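Field reference: sequence -> structure
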Amino acid sequence: MDRREFIAYGASALLKAKSNPAEEAQPVVGASSNVQALASVGKTNIVMIMADQLRQDCVGVYGNRVIRTPHLDRLGNEGIIFEQAYSSTPSCTPARSALMTGMSPWKHGMLGYSNIATNPYPVEKARALSEAGYFTMAVGKNHYYPITNPHGYNHMVTDEHCSYWFDQSGPQTAQSYEPRCDYESWFWSQMPDKDPHKTGLGWNDRTAKPFVFPEEMHATYWTGTTAVRFLEQYERKDPFFLKVSFIRPHSPYDPPERFFKMYEKADLPKAEAGEWAVKYEPRSSERDDLWHGKLSDEMIRNSRQGYYGSVSFMDEQVGRILEVLERRGILESTLIVFFSDHGDMLGDQNMWRKSYAYEQSAHIPMLMRVPKSMGLRRGQRVEGTVELRDVLPTFLEVAGVDAPKSMDGRSMLELVRNGKEGWREYLDLEHDLTYDRTNHWTALTDGRWKYIFHAFDGQEQLFDLKKDPNELNDLVAKSSSGKDLAMWRGRMVEHLRERGPEWVEGDRLMLRPKSMLHSPNFPGYVPMEKIAGWR
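Structure field:
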């Protein structure tokens, strides 16, 4: 069986090949053949499901009465709903660095969007869980560079949409060649004369339309199917850690037609913008991948229709994963955590895409279904700021391993058990220069208040998230907010002080008009001034 056949028909052959030859694998007979083997190891299986670019308010259990996400809602209703979950650096690769390492942006070193470190960190999620006795499997998007870098996974079957990232205008050369990801290889094994990316929509476009190929050819369906086949065919006696990483609802907003039509007549929420966001009304570009611009209600609705359909299509795949866990009798011996790497502005505040401090970009869903044996009350809503850095320490606790002191993150189970007492008082957010030199900021939030410092010009913003969850009213100009503003500014000064005089001088926050993409903690760190041509 070659690689394409393996991807098309399941992971069983490779898993058998990786097994200890001296260990006799139990044959799969029916749907629940090795339930006893899986249950006998005494450790909880872990399934980590993540979406790309899913904002918190587009999941039903968080209060959206229009979107249809019955399976994500089930995870929340049968588990724990974290109300104040964030992505500290809300774009793809720095978010995933926090997830990989359990560290804050300054500690893992990625302050904005760049390639994830090629050199390994001292502790990485998959490697740590593998050392704890888990078979570690990744399905879907990792966003590693190079894409074949395993970062500790025993096996990866990837969807990186990597052919977006090299020039397809002419014949390939040795210099232009980029390895295809597994989804693309599988797609071309089924439709060799078609291109999954030549659908009329670009990678960051705000436009939406139905997927032009059969539904089963969509990356979302492929990721769900690959995860299901892994769970159906898993035969090892080791507990498993399964990462399922969907590349949607990140644009292109291209759900299958039945999901696009699902929201054809739905009363979708309209975009909202505060008076402070008027400056973002002019279009940043006439292209469809603009980062700011006030578009017509019809254009915004088109984007949201495709986005909502993409979310519901992904939710259906989550349902398939839950079904196979139930069918094999291992749902109650498996911890399931669902979240996203960051959100999507979708026209709110006259902005598009991500990388901003605002709720639609940085506030993410975080749902955790715990086995009954953990004794935690199900269906509860938990307050207290959690972040992607907290995912790995949570998994290490479940695996029976102490998190190293180098990690900034903490097990979210601690917050569930003990409440906010003793938990972090507030959370740090930041993003290096992206799209434009003015989009460069640091922020703090405790889930009630949010303070933002814009590094380009020193502008400050303060929002009361309890009274103003959509951040329409910037309180900085109000005299009544002076005391709160001073307190949050002081917290920011203390938070950034360790970074040196480029960040804080005395009690003053310093302007940073130039990019500082990496901190000195980034593996293989090179100072920005030594990178030729860097802005």
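Note: The chain has 15 helices and 17 strands.
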